[in-house]
Specification:
Bound molecules: decanoyl-CoA
Shape: globular
Distance between the termini: 49 Å
Radius of gyration: 23 Å
Strand order of the largest sheet: 4-5-9-7-6
Largest sheet: 5 strands, mixed, barrel
Number of strands: 11
């Protein structure tokens, strides 16, 4: 019989994930972990089994836009893939969004919810996108104190009943610019009936089937610029499910995330309700952006984990030069470098989850965590997104030629990862946001405080040395910013990406070292090796 390569397999994605499990053991009180572990294990089973199998079987299907019925009536119906229909049910029943709002475990509920999301996401073809927007919309409505809208939408957004649950859209991007939202052209007009209606064109609308959306538009007569924008709540369908004042012009033909129905919309009088007054819409949507950016970071870590899981399994079964790949020193070394990046991304992403948990529950240093989140959210989003692209690329390569073949699933992983550094703000837009955040909350000092707290437990000399590297790297970035800002030129802006990446990687190293000390104290030396390896990969940004 000729040689046939064994295909990589996935096991229970919770049980197999030493990094996640080690993190959760430290981050959660033992009774909380004991209580939630069965649900995490069940999600790990689904993700490594039936959902992954369905994803592979359904690989070639994509959402379809049906614009007219057989009689020529415009219907603009989008038919979703099987994975998406199944993902909708699983997400609702498992409470992937609901968990954080039910708050059964106080401030730990965010870590719980994001652990579910992390396990769920890689096997569900980016159904995490509408979940992220549902979560973000819920937060933005709550933050605005929009009581009537909260009463109407929150029970749906956070429902565990697949027949009742809603996801949300986030209608921002327009033709003049996705990054420069101030150029939004959509106009809001108030009719004689007192109802606001939106008119314009939205150029990238993710998850277009969502039953509600938050949209930016300029109330008629408002000045140009972003302060003249307002945030509106939209339910695009009437009670019979027909679109009202919205046309779906086409679905986007994208590099990746191809199961996610992303559309161009014409808004032709869709009814809308102001969320937070008639100006300052960017400020009103910011809570949503910060939540979706956290989801982005969790998704980045989750996709890295999927790449590592497949590459590791492949390395155990594929033989070359007389040995399994994992026993080839160079291959093993390459995988160790990739795994260290994954571990760093996971700690960064879940640090945001911890902060959100404190702020939302009011249990802990709310002011300190609020400031930390303001500076860390853009930094973690951009850092983990760049890592995900690099790690997905390595994972493809780790499978050799097979990794370059579509039905190995690896090319889709790489294409999908690329979106993470574009949507929800590109690397550069977020680096500029990081500069603004640093100025607003004295962000370098805030990060230094976090690093000091992390370093306090470092008894192991090797780990203490890594903590010192992290702190000196942040201090160096802080000095650079002071000098660049004093030069009264574009220097600070030009160097913003390097600055933000350096802060992101240094923070990751501090989190890794802190966790590694805890693990060493439990007799587990693996995280310490990951921390050392991450430091060797480099914390000073080069690009
Ligand atoms: C699976 C994971 C993810 C799934 C979700 C995927 C869905 C994908 C759909 C999309 O991609 S939707 C499009 C996403 N678009 C963006 O993320 C826009 C990117 N551009 C930016 O983020 C710009 O920085 C920004 C539009 C915010 C700049 O606009 P402005 O008007 O120049 O903002 P400015 O003046 O900096 O801020 C206005 C106010 O908002 C200020 O408050 P004040 O009015 O009190 O001064 C800011 O402090 C506040 N603000 C802005 N960004 C904030 C924020 N506050 C807190 N956090 C932030 N991030």
């Amino acid at each position: 019989m000729p040689f046939v390569q064994p295909s990589p397999r996935l096991g229970n994605q919770y049980d197999d994930d030493a990094v996640l499990r080690s993190y959760l053991r430290r981050a959660l009180p033992p009774d909380v972990l004991r209580e939630i572990e069965p649900a995490l294990r069940e999600m790990g089973r689904l993700a490594g089994g039936p959902l992954h199998d369905l994803q592979r079987a359904d690989r070639l299907s994509e959402p379809v836009l049906v614009q007219t019925d057989a009689w020529g009536n415009r219907v603009d119906r989008v038919e979703l893939t099987r994975v998406w229909r199944e993902a909708e049910r699983v997400a609702a029943e498992a409470g992937v969004v609901a968990t954080a709002y039910e708050r059964r475990h106080g401030r730990h509920s965010r870590v719980h919810g994001f652990a579910l999301a992390y396990l769920f996401t890689p096997s569900t073809d980016f159904y995490g996108c509408p979940l992220a927007m549902a979560d973000g919309a819920a937060r933005a409505l709550l933050a605005a104190g929009a009581d009537e809208l909260v009463a109407r939408a929150l029970p749906r957004l956070t429902s565990r009943d697949p027949a009742r649950v809603w996801v949300s859209g986030q209608w921002m991007t327009e033709l003049p610019g996705g990054s420069d939202v101030s150029r939004t052209e959509t106009v809001a007009r108030r009719g004689d009936d007192g109802v606001w209606r939106l008119h314009g064109r939205k150029w990238f609308v993710s998850a277009v089937t969502a039953p509600m959306a938050l949209a930016l538009a300029r109330p008629e007569g408002n000045p140009p610029g972003s302060r003249g924008l307002a945030l509106f709540y939209v339910e695009p369908r009437d009670e019979d499910g027909r679109l009202q004042g919205v046309r779906v012009e086409r679905l986007k033909d994208k590099l990746g995330t191809r199961k996610l129905p992303t559309a161009e919309l014409t808004l032709d009088g869709v009814p809308a309700v102001p969320v937070a007054g008639l100006t300052d819409g960017v400020r009103a949507v910011a809570p949503m952006l910060n939540v979706t950016r956290t989801w982005n970071a969790i998704t980045a870590a989750a996709l890295m984990r999927r790449g590592v899981a497949l590459a590791t399994d492949h390395a155990a079964r594929r033989e070359a030069f007389g040995r399994p790949l994992r026993d080839l020193p160079l291959h093993a070394d390459t995988l160790a470098g990739v795994e260290a990046e994954l571990e760093a991304a996971l700690h960064l992403a879940f640090r945001l989850a911890e902060g959100l948990g404190v702020v939302e529950s009011g249990d802990g240093d709310v002011a300190g965590e609020t400031a930390l989140l303001r500076v860390l959210t853009p930094i973690v989003k951009l850092t983990t997104a760049r890592q995900a692209v690099a790690v997905a690329s390595e994972a493809v390569e780790a499978l050799g030629g097979v990794g370059y073949i579509e039905d190995s699933g690896m090319p889709a992983l790489l294409r999908d990862a690329q979106v993470l550094s574009i949507w929800e703000g590109t690397t550069n837009v977020l680096a500029l946001d990081a500069l603004r955040a640093v100025a607003a909350v004295d962000g370098v000092r805030v990060l230094e405080g976090e690093l000091r707290r992390r370093a306090a437990s470092l008894a192991d000399p090797g780990l203490a040395a890594l903590g010192d590297v992290a702190r000196s790297t942040v201090e160096e970035a802080g000095r650079w910013l002071e000098e660049a800002s004093a030069r009264e030129s574009d220097a600070a802006e030009a160097g913003a990406r390097r600055f933000a990446l350096q802060l992101g990687r240094a923070t990751a190293l501090a989190l890794l070292a802190h966790h590694a000390q805890w693990a060493l104290d439990q007799g587990d030396a693996r995280p310490a090796a990951a921390a050392r390896r991450f430091a060797a990969n480099g914390v000073r940004a080069t690009g």
